[in-house]
Amino acid sequence: MYSRFLEFIKRKNLFDSSHKLLLGVSGGADSVALTHLVNRLPNMFAVAHCNFNLRGADSDNDERFVKELAGKLGVPCYLSSFPTREYAAENGVSIEMAARELRYNWFEKVRTENDFDFILVGHHLDDVLETFMLNLTRSTGIRGLSGIKPKAGHIVRPLLFATRADVEAYVRENNLDFCTDYTNADTKFKRNAIRHKILPEFESLNPAFKKNLQQTITYLWQTEQIYNEKVEAVRKEVECTDGDWVRIDTLKLRNYEPLQAYLFELLHPFGFNSVVVSEIKESMNGVSGQQFFSASHRLVTDRNELIITTLREEEQQQYFYISKDIKGLKEPVGLELRVETYDSEYRIEKNPAIALIDYHKLNFPLVLRKWKQGEYFRPLGMKGFKKLSDFLIDEKYSIPEKENTWVLMSDNKVVWVVGKRIDDRFKITGATRKVFRIEML
Question: Could you tell me the domains of the chain?
Answer without folding.
Answer: 2-215 (3.40.50.620), 243-310 (no CATH), 320-440 (no CATH)
